[in-house]
Design a protein that fits this description.
539 residues; elongated; six-stranded mixed sheet; 37% helix; 16 helices; alpha/beta; 2 domains
């Protein structure tokens, strides 16, 4: 029995780019070997990236995976544990291969396939049914994949079959509080089964998911030996001695909720834009807090040189809004263009005049302003290759306080899963990081307004945001009914109004652009309600 150095490859692997992922694995393996590691562990399905979704159904997948595995078998001097899809006899398994000395020495198939929230692995994979272990450096090493650790049986099987060390491959997406849950789980499983655990997690943004890393290791007594930095590529080297213990590593400090949220939003936007091949982003900068925070996230994600902002004033745009937009663009060193929309709106109004004759003005005319801005932004996007970044928040998306084909138009929404009250918190947090605040204080402190009619504020149509968000959180995240919300001392009329708005606007949300998931119940793949239904309100 010898001391063993294990490398945990907390890194990003692009979905579908099997060739590039293979090269990255080979490079990381060689780097780990040069640093003295005898074994390297990659995240779940790292070969294809996670989640590969219907790419798993492509006829050519097996050929590409087989070619990649052949390349990986050429790596010498280090054992690799590689996450990949294993296709056998018409079935596909979420698998981990042990590659050593030019051969695949063993393959483990994930036993617990999550089929809730953002996960739909049962659509693609067949569940495995047996434990897999391999002997190396005097240790009997067992393998698990992500969800397997959340169930008692798979690790109990490993213990029963004589495992002395457990390696867990993960693609566990970010949400608020999730890292603390993972850490507690690793410590509990290690302690309860008296087995050291090394846990490697994926990194990077993929569509609406963000993987925050935070790889872990715990000794058999449950003591935490590694808590790797999050939102950062990291090759963590763990020393596992002959007494079957990890030697302690530096533990990353706990990250406040606002900080981890902000970093997740930056990573999600950065990777989406970069992986999609856009030059950068363009957004409408209104002088309000949502577009101000969106601009700041974009600059932190991509750099000021890859961000464009457009101020599109109309008759109801206040001078304060113009001044604040100019001030923020200057502080972030972003190029700001000004494009009044009066002539565009007037053109629409003139064309529609014969149809609207005798009709009173209403939200139709307000929506024409938003849609004029959307057309302008999309034209600039088409011409110059910058993706339009929409700026609506989760509170607005929940109640439909947004205009289809207007302020909802674009390719990505950094704030899609961020409640309005969180927007204020994030703005203040980001300002605290700079000697000179990047978001003018007046943007944060003045009453929010869409400025689509004279003296308009959001609270003309909606409850105060602290009340609105509390009701929305109860209904969306906690699945509370109207009666349960009223029992928590919210006014009956207010609850009914909010829930009616949420239920009525599913059709808008179904057409909304994607944005990074940060909550326990994000709109999109995680919360899927029928657009047309006869469900009784709030039951």
């Amino acid at each position: 029995m010898n001391d063993l150095t294990i490398a945990l490859a907390q890194s990003a692997f692009k979905v579908g780019d099997i060739a590039a992922n293979t090269q990255q694995m080979m490079s990381l393996a060689e780097q780990a070997r040069e640093q003295g590691a005898g074994l390297i562990v990659f995240p779940e399905l790292a070969l294809t990236g996670y989640p590969p979704e219907d790419l798993l159904l492509r006829p050519s997948l097996a050929v590409r995976v087989e070619q990649a595995l052949q390349h990986l078998q050429s790596v010498e001097g280090i054992v690799m544990v590689v996450g990949y899809p294993d296709q056998q006899n018409g079935q596909c398994f979420n698998a981990a291969a042990v590659i050593a000395n030019g051969k695949i020495r063993g393959t483990y198939h994930k036993q617990n396939l999550p089929n809730y929230g953002v996960f739909d692995e049962q659509r693609y994979f067949t569940a495995g049914h047996r434990p897999v272990m391999f002997d190396f450096a005097g240790q009997r090493i067992g393998l698990l994949i992500c969800e397997d650790l959340w169930d008692e049986q798979p690790i109990a099987q490993l213990k029963q079959h004589g495992a002395t060390l457990v390696l867990v491959l993960n693609a566990s997406p970010f949400e608020l509080g999730k890292h603390q849950q993972r850490r507690a789980l690793v410590q509990q499983r290690a302690h309860d089964h008296q087995l050291p655990i090394a846990y490697v997690n994926l990194l990077g943004g993929q569509d609406d998911l963000v993987f925050d890393g935070g790889s872990l290791a715990a000794n058999a007594d449950g003591q935490l030996m590694l808590d790797a930095p999050r939102f950062k590529s990291q090759l963590s080297l763990l020393q596992f001695n002959t007494e079957q213990q990890f030697l302690p590593q530096s533990l990353a400090p706990d990250m406040p909720a606002t900080e981890e949220t902000y970093r997740a939003l930056v990573m999600g936007l950065r990777d989406y834009v970069n992986h999609s091949g856009f030059k950068g982003v363009i957004l409408g900068l209104s002088g309000g807090i949502d577009s101000a925070l969106s601009l700041t996230i974009a600059v932190d994600a991509l750099g000021a040189d890859r961000v464009r902002a457009v101020m599109m004033p109309y008759t109801y745009t206040s001078e304060i809004s113009v001044e604040d937009a100019q001030a923020q663009a200057a502080r972030l060193k972003v190029k700001l263009y000004t494009a009044p929309i009066n002539t565009i709106v007037d053109g629409f109004t003139s064309t529609l005049a014969p149809f609207f004759e005798g009709e009173a003005a209403d939200t139709t005319e307000e929506n024409l302003q938003a849609r004029s801005r959307g057309v302008l932004l999309m034209a600039l996007s088409n011409k110059f290759g910058y993706m339009v970044l929409t700026t609506g928040n989760k509170s607005e998306m929940a109640v439909g306080y947004a205009t289809l084909y207007g302020d909802m138009v674009g390719g990505f929404n950094a704030l899609k899963d961020v409640y309005k009250t969180q927007v204020f918190e994030l703005a203040r947090y980001r300002n605290s990081l700079s000697k000179n605040p990047v978001i003018p204080e007046r943007v944060i402190s003045r009453a929010p307004s869409a400025e689509l009619r004279p003296d308009q504020t959001d609270q003309d149509s909606l409850p105060a945001y602290d009340v609105l968000d509390a009701i929305l959180y109860g209904y969306i995240e906690r699945d509370l009914s109207a009666e349960q919300l009223v029992a928590e001392d919210f006014a009956t009329e207010t609850v009914q109004k909010v829930l009616q708005l949420v239920d009525r606007n599913e059709y808008k949300r179904r057409q909304a652009v994607i944005g990074s998931k940060i909550s326990t119940r994000a709109f999109g793949r995680e919360r899927r309600y029928p657009m047309v239904n006869g469900w009784t309100l709030g039951k």
